[in-house]
Design goal:
The structure is a single chain. By secondary structure, the protein is of the alpha+beta class. The protein folds into 3 domains: 4-84, 2-Layer Sandwich (Nucleotidyltransferase, domain 5), CATH 3.30.420.40; 89-167, 2-Layer Sandwich (Dna Ligase, domain 1), CATH 3.30.1490; 199-264, ATPase, nucleotide binding domain (Nucleotidyltransferase, domain 5). It contains 7 helices and 16 strands. Helix 1 (53-71) crosses helix 3 (167-180). Residues 10-198 form the SHS2 domain.
């Protein structure tokens, strides 16, 4: 076991309509260890929206307390919190930087500034980007490269693909969570985070579709050439499967859910 006194903690929380799940990881040097895991019933959410703020906060607080009980200490950690919403969209942005006749070496600072500009442009359109991918680098309007660092060009054009959510949806989750989670946190898309976690680079380059069966709806995300090219949702999820099992077996919804979890 790694020494907790010298460990950096990271906590991942996934907010679903049926369950809220949490995982605490510890890192020291290059060693990682799962230190705590918990799953509690989600309350106050319906169809990806917060409908009861008090119940929602109580659910998150219950999860945090269970994680702290397993750690036997207060949870001081960087948080990544993912959630599901049918409002997620894919949006492309093109940013160009022209250096005039002089060719300049492309540095990390230049790329960072261009990405920041892409993020700001999305926000100006009322969208909050949760994930951003560099889709294509074009030097001098004619040369496509995979990595422009240290290459010289008089102009660089970058095409970005972003997964965005309307500002009002982002603020709804962020404001409620800010009152509950007392540490810094980032908000991410559950669908994208799941896909990034299970896919390899060759799979994303070659082309692949991930189907994430949620409680209220099913999310689909397609990759090609390393970036998402399509994101969509189907209004059918595990809730509908549980209802069918309940009807066929003539049992309660809760018992049908237990049977699915236990026996698959």
């Amino acid at each position: 076991m790694i020494d907790l006194s010298k460990t950096v903690f990271y906590t991942s929380i996934d907010i679903g309509s049926r369950y809220i799940k949490g995982l605490v990881l510890g890192k020291r040097d290059q060693e990682w260890e799962a230190l705590a895991f918990s799953s509690v019933k989600s309350r106050g959410l319906d169809e990806g929206e917060i409908k009861d703020a008090i119940a929602f906060k109580e659910s998150v607080n219950t999860l945090l307390k269970e994680l702290e009980e397993q750690l036997q200490k207060s949870l001081r950690s960087d948080f990544v919190i993912s959630f599901s919403s049918v409002s997620f969209e894919r949006e492309d942005t093109v940013i160009e930087r022209d250096f005039g006749e002089e060719k300049r070496s492309i540095t990390l600072d230049i790329l960072s500034e261009m990405q920041s500009e892409a993020l700001e442009r999305l926000k100006e359109n009322g969208k909050t980007p949760l994930h951003i991918f560099s889709k294509r680098y074009l030097l001098d309007g004619e040369r496509i490269v995979f990595n422009p660092l240290d290459m010289k060009a008089s102009k660089i054009t970058i095409e970005y693909t972003s997964i965005v959510v309307p500002l009002k949806v982002y603020e709804m989750f962020y404001n409620f969570l800010q009152d509950t989670v007392k540490s810094p946190f980032q908000l991410k898309s559950s669908l994208v985070s799941t896909a990034e976690g299970v896919l390899t680079t060759p799979e994303k380059d070659r082309g692949v579709v991930v189907v994430n069966l949620g409680y209220n709806f099913t999310g689909l995300i397609a990759y090609k050439n390393g970036v998402p090219i399509k994101i969509s949702y189907v209004p059918v999820g595990m809730k509908h499967v549980i209802k069918d099992v309940s009807a066929v077996l003539d049992t309660s919804f809760e018992e049908a859910e237990r049977l699915i979890i236990t026996h698959g």
